[in-house]
Hints:
alpha/beta, 2 domains, 18 helices, 5 strands, 56% helix, ParB/Sulfiredoxin domain-containing protein
Amino acid sequence: MTESPSGIRSGVPMQVPISALLLDPFNPRLPESLRGGDQSDLAVVLEMGFDAFAVAQSVADNGFFAAEPLIAIHDEIPGKYVVVEGNRRLTALIGLSHPEIREQFADPSRWEAVAEKAAMSPEVAVPIVVHTNREATHVEVSRAHVVGKLQWRPYMQARFIAARVAEGRTIKEVADLIGITKSKAADLYRDQAIVAQAETAGLNTGEVERAFSVLTVAMGNTKLRDHIGAPLGSRLEPGQAPVPPGKIPELKEVISWVFGDEEAEPVITDSRQMSALGNVVASEVGLASLRSGKSLEEAKQQVQSAGMDPRERLLKRMTAATNALGAASDDLAEHATDKQVVGLVSDLESLVESMRNVIDQAANEARAQ
């Protein structure tokens, strides 16, 4: 453990009053417009968007569990701590102990009832674990959200990866840090860069951020990815724009077809239709149909009328790919250190990861029905 300026070691458990705790103004759950915002504003947004009330009810009924301490770092103000993990729980504690803040929540009346039951003041002490700096918390925070019981939504995972890469870490280092494969981390990095690029281009990305996992399925489809000119995640260099400038109109098309926009509803109703959309977009006949305002089903019929059978083509291609990979594995050991061979294996990993995302997303949606 390292020593902090105040002499407190990193990762040391403490008991501090709620009044000494601050919500993280750089929490990846927060929209960009609120980064660095006022504590009251942060609490209102977190309460509204992340169901802090459910946590408050649990605290009122059962108390705050010492086995789940908040993870914090020292603030610039002596005696204050910024909570970098546990902001939803801290929002609940603030709502229960600070009447002037909970009265700003969307439904203050329901908070009053649980606050009365909890009888909690700002001076109530809660458990925290103090680290010397934000970087020292990364392993603990990321594993709790990405592979732990309280997982971040995919977009927040992607934002976390992008932030660490911006600090100078490699994709491989971040993947190891949070316990996911390098190819998955690379794809998440690419997909958040696509969202950022779309926002910069003036596109409405609100729905894309909320349903980010659907974008990962879309970008796992080679035909849709080729339509906007985006590379495999393993081929995207840090800081590079994934979509070429000349392909921004195509990016707008894909976002519209998948998520809808101000002018039209999406042409798919769930991610299991992504393969069908990709097949239609890859066909000149199908693409022209979508661009003319036809539904996905109408465009599919026009593609099929042109003599194409997407399922048959899929099976033939996958069978050929399986046979080719089986044959290639016979020669792999002899050339396992060849940079080009290693790069191609990374591409294959990324492609298989994308295909698995499509299957997993379809299975999740099937179970939800």
